[in-house]
Specification:
37% strand; 2 helices
Length: 104
């Protein structure tokens, strides 16, 4: 996954190994989440004790009870991207030569 830092005009590459859940949603339809907590700032963070983690464990019917799961949240101005995984992601800033040439 690539995240663009608009201020510094650079890209952060985040690699997730074997994600169990990937949930994307438009920020404008996460009104309850925004009402219950301060709006997240754009960026990348780990979420602790989330409803999504509880839901994943419930759906797994005990298979994941003894497994450490991590919930990560990537916020942009428009989107929430949530990843549940068993492994720490690897992240690095791309060099200018590696950056994609996406339209502005």
């Amino acid at each position: 996954m690539l995240i663009r830092d608009q201020v510094a005009a650079r890209f952060l590459e985040i690699l997730f190994e074997a994600p169990l859940v990937l949930r994307t949603s438009l920020e404008s339809y996460r009104l309850l989440a925004l009402e219950l907590a301060p709006p997240p700032r754009p960026g990348f963070s780990r979420v602790h004790g989330s409803e999504l983690l509880r839901w994943v464990r419930l759906e797994a019917c005990g298979i994941l009870d003894d497994v450490e799961l991590m919930h990560f949240l990537i916020c942009t101005d428009d989107d929430f991207v949530e990843i549940v995984t068993r492994f720490e992601p690897a992240a690095r800033w791309l060099t200018p030569e590696e950056e994609p040439s996406w339209p502005e």
